[in-house]
Design goal:
single chain; 339 residues; eight-stranded parallel barrel; two-stranded antiparallel sheet; 46% helix
């Protein structure tokens, strides 16, 4: 790494030190305990839970409680909460802290219709006064640090992320993450990292830039354009839980970018499969891993027909043993052909 590309520096979120500011994004249906465990093992600086809805958490729904699961192998326990009423955010925050959260992240960035229809997620950016009541309730309810994830705004006529970030900082939020798109863009077009720079100008707390970051070069450019203190890796890490750590190896340690070989990658997913079966039971545990298997195959192969065959073989596996055997067979076969 040249002197013109300085290494990322660590920062603190309250008592939590982030040594490697390359984070795994919270993603519903993706960043459950098995995947977060692998991402942290490979060197991600922080890993964030799936979004947890406060009101259903308070109802004690088993599937919602399960989203908060973590262990010491996941590093600092970061639980992301979503809600639309201050009362339920307060209740949810307290339950998350009781469940062992070291940091609570508030979701004001999810663009999914089923979330925004309920006036949660990025819909909160349409009414900043109301959004701040949720922030204030969460901060006051717990003793652990609170962070906030948002988008640039609801649409390009209301790019209010700088104002929301400033007001959140004043209310006690200790880190802000901004995805460089509006809600109305969903995941279309290219994330606008330069627009995040306006948030940088409005706050002094750590800022993380998110959106379309898949390589160290993209991460460096996102940092340059945004002025952020770190990056968050999202969709590109599906099937590649090692990706945030591999990017951190470059940005934080000055190493050469290197992803695992097929067998090491397959073993990481096999380990996640074992944890997934522990978490969900065999039937659901195997099904939950299918998206990761398919993404792993798509990353490893350039031949569409070959990829289709292996995706089918892995996604048809009905039990843990069959899925594991197909996964390792894929790695061995592809390595042999490459050699």
């Amino acid at each position: 790494m040249s002197l013109s590309q300085p290494l990322l520096s660590c920062f603190d979120i309250g008592p939590v030190r982030v040594e490697r500011p390359v984070l795994l994004a919270p993603m519903s249906g993706v960043t459950d305990w098995p995947i977060r465990k692998q991402a942290f093992k490979f060197g991600a600086g922080l890993v964030v839970s799936e979004m947890v809805a406060c009101e259903t958490l308070a109802q004690g729904r088993e599937d919602v409680i399960r989203r908060m699961r973590a262990d010491d192998d996941c590093g600092p326990h970061v639980i992301q909460l979503a809600g639309r009423e201050a009362h339920w955010m307060e209740v949810g925050a307290r339950l998350a802290e009781e469940a062992g959260a070291d940091i609570i992240d508030i979701n004001m960035g999810c663009p999914a219709r089923q979330v925004t229809r309920g006036l949660s997620g990025s819909a909160l950016m349409r009414d900043l006064d109301h959004a701040l009541t949720l922030v204030e309730a969460t901060v006051k309810a717990v003793s652990v640090p609170v962070t906030l994830k948002m988008r640039l705004g609801w649409d390009h006529d209301s790019l209010n992320a700088p104002e929301l970030a400033r007001r959140a900082q004043d209310a006690g939020v200790q880190m802000v993450t901004v995805h460089g798109r509006t809600r109305q863009q969903f995941y279309k077009d290219q994330a606008d990292w330069s627009a995040v720079a306006r948030v940088r100008e409005s706050i002094s707390i750590p800022l993380i830039v998110n959106g379309d970051i898949e390589t160290p070069d993209q991460a460096r450019e996102a940092l340059r354009l945004s002025g952020a203190d770190g990056v968050m890796v999202g969709r590109a890490s599906q099937g590649r839980p090692w990706l945030p750590g591999a990017i951190a190896d470059v940005l934080c340690d000055g190493q050469t970018f290197c992803e695992p070989g097929l067998e090491e990658g397959a073993q990481a997913l096999a380990d996640a499969l074992t944890d997934s079966v522990t978490l969900y039971g065999e039937h659901l545990g195997v099904r939950t891993m299918r998206k990761h298997f398919a993404s792993f195959v798509d990353w490893a192969l350039t031949d569409d027909d070959d990829a289709r065959e292996w995706r089918g073989r892995l996604c048809r596996a009905r039990n843990e043993q069959d899925a594991r055997e197909e996964l390792m067979a894929f790695a061995r076969t592809k390595r042999a052909r490459a050699a």
